[in-house]
Amino acid sequence: MCYNRDMIGKRAIAFDIGNKRIGVAVSDPFNEYAMPCETYVRTRNFAADVAAVAKIAKDRGVGVIVCGMPVNYDGTESIQTVKTREFVDALRAATDLPIELEDERFTTMQARETQIMGGVKRDERKKTIDSIAASYILESYLAREKMRAKQAEERTMSEIKDEIYEEEDDRIFELEADDGTIERLYHLATIEYRKAMYCVFQKAEPETEEEEDEVIIFALQGEDEDAMLVPVEDPQLLDEVFAEFCHQYEQFENSDEAESLDD
Length: 263
Description:
Blueprint: E1 12-17, E2 21-27, E3 34-41, H1 46-60, E4 64-69, H2 79-94, E5 99-103, H3 107-117, H4 122-125, H5 129-170, E6 172-176, E7 182-193, E8 196-203, H6 209-213, E9 216-221, E10 228-231, H7 235-253, H8 256-262
Parallel strand pairs: 1-4, 4-5
Antiparallel strand pairs: 1-2, 2-3, 6-7, 7-8, 8-9, 9-10
């Protein structure tokens, strides 16, 4: 399940802004679902209504305000759109909370169907229809936010994978053999042994199981642009360097750094 982590503990609140009433709905603490709340009955004082709505949001301790934006069925703006936008603009000036707009087409119709299915009598419907409509506005917003968070997480994971692949490519070296063939080697580590430096590789494209486990060790001589990889001819020295590599690798595997990478 994908949560909007930035909003855990900070609920969202939605307002269905009408000329006579303003429906209110809030989310659960994890922003998974919307719950209808009270209905604010508007006065004839525009500024007082804006202040009252801002106070409702503040008292609820929410992290974001969602306002339904009424538009025509074809998506064009109506007179009610202009009125609602005017109210939202005033609300932005009355609160420090971020305000999001959500298309509220069909929400009143859905709310009425919910009331009918619930057996709410006609004369009682106006008491709750606005808050139910606000809950549909909020559910639409929450669903959109979950999708946005999921897409962002997928992009992040994709970027991490790309970085890993780029890092893997950076660790692959091409060495030319005496016969002119090119061998691709994956750099495992560079270690120090008896005041000398050694580079440990594996074949980047092993063809057999034996080659997958095979370790290739070169002595590193010189520095920077003058550095050269020189084969280690002494079998005993080769075994000692390999043993030192295994020892250092085991120490790394048991280190806090390795555990943090696993996390």
